[in-house]
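Question (not urgent): is this output format expected?
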Amino acid sequence: MKTSKGVEIKSKIIFIDVDGTLLDYENKLPESAALAIQKAHANRHKVYICTGRSKAEVYDYIWDIGLDGMIGGNGSYVEHQDHIVMQQLITKEQCRHIVDWLNLDI
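Got this back:
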């Protein structure tokens, strides 16, 4: 893509936090945020959310603004255009260890 002066514009990847950035603290998505993402796409940029949320906590109205993917679960899940790129799960043994640690009477 080129500007009106013929300067080449390179595509960029934009990472956006969700809670308190893309959404307000009442989980509302401002129209200005949706418009900004549409403008980024019009300029051939990719837009991803980067969040502590799991995939299940990213509701349809968030996806509906046209995200290209997400880095979620504090980095344990990566998705690009509905394709899981990486997913790191904890083992049953790790889960038991965490639960036991949480149940310690300190």
